[in-house]
Amino acid sequence: MHLKLFQNLIEKWCHVDDHLQPVTPSELDSLEERFRTLLPANYRECLETYGPVSVGLSLLSSIVEQNVQLEDLSQILSPEDIVQTTEGWRKAGLPLWFIAFASQGSGDLFCFKETTESAVRPMDALVYYFEHEEGGVDSMEITFTEWLKQYVELKKTAA
After folding, report:
1. What's the Cα-to-Cα distance from 75 to each of 8, 53, 101, 135, 152, rounded to whole Å?
2. Could you give the number of structural domains in the chain?
3. What is the mean pLDDT of each run of 10 residues along the chain (159 residues)?
4. Domain ranges, residue 46
């Protein structure tokens, strides 16, 4: 289900001329080693199949036009961007136990909470929202798969 949702997200909201570049398992392994964590299996599979993506402005326009309580999504980050973004924002207030995997465009981030390396890899994980101006992190109380679904189910009102 998560792969189909990711594909639908790409088809509905991403730039048509973007060339998808899947991430290798070794890139994700290196990312996990760097942060001493295990990323959710569903998330890994999406990146290994499709890679990071940039979302078009039509998503933001649709959110605003429909006045829905949904945070804008700008990018699902590459492993390199995850490292750069997470480490940069940790210096500016992102708690050490969160790892950014997507950005909102204005500096706010979607994050996973770190797991211990000795834990069993989770299939899915809760998504947390880091609001950079407030400096706080809140659970969105939805999993990565549910997070994808909310964007896919949003009606597209703009081209």
Report:
1. 15, 6, 9, 20, 15
2. 1
3. 92 80 97 95 97 92 92 95 96 94 92 85 95 83 97 87
4. 2-153
